[in-house]
Specification:
With 191 residues, this protein is an alpha/beta fold. The chain contains eight helices and five strands. The longest helix is centred in the first third of the chain and has 25 residues.
């Protein structure tokens, strides 16, 4: 009988420790699990050409503040805005992203300013940020122009597959498509 009491005390202590440790471990997790592609596309309802072309990467036209909140809840951490500063957004997007708990970055360009520096900076941002990036412009045209070289050069996709996806998800500008193809040709020559 004497030996049972220390064992019982030890079991009570272990159970108490386990019970109190679980909530503390739960609090440490600050990033929600990444939502699957179909869920992300559903939450982007109302965003022009809203898509999830690659795991952890969502794309589309101008989001609302509600979309930003939903993306954060789905595990996204960054908004990358490709629109020019003077383009209307219907909100202070930087402030809305901050309220939603998202980092906000800009890489503004239009067809006439799309050059190697834009493609290279986009690829750098995507490599640095990893998963959890929502990239947008007004209609997803610019998004898909810069997405193609990243998919081909950094993710190993074929050009045919990347351009087909880009056209499906909003690439409409022959000029921007040509610039993406030219960039890919020159980058292939550097390898």
């Amino acid at each position: 009988m004497r030996h049972r009491r220390p064992v019982l005390v030890l079991l009570v202590l272990l159970l108490a420790t386990a019970t109190h440790a679980a909530p503390a471990a739960k609090r440490v997790m600050t990033r929600p699990a990444m939502a699957d592609s179909a869920s992300v596309v559903a939450m982007l309802a109302g965003v022009t050409n809203g898509a999830c072309p690659y795991e952890g990467v969502a794309t589309g036209g101008q989001p609302s503040e509600a979309h930003l909140v939903s993306l954060r809840k789905a595990g996204y951490t960054t908004v990358l805005d490709l629109r020019m500063p003077e383009e209307p957004r219907g909100m202070d997007e930087a402030a809305a992203a901050k309220r939603a708990g998202l980092a906000y970055e800009t890489l503004p360009f239009v067809a006439t300013t799309l050059d190697d520096s834009v493609f290279t900076r986009f690829r750098t941002i995507m490599r640095t940020r990893g998963k959890g990036v929502f990239v947008h412009c007004a209609s997803a045209n610019r998004v898909n122009a810069v997405l193609v070289p990243w998919l081909v050069l950094d993710r190993g996709w074929s050009q045919e597959r990347a351009f087909a996806l880009a056209r499906t998800n909003g690439l409409r500008s022959p000029e921007m498509e040509a610039k993406a193809r030219d960039y890919l040709t020159r980058q292939a020559g550097k390898r």
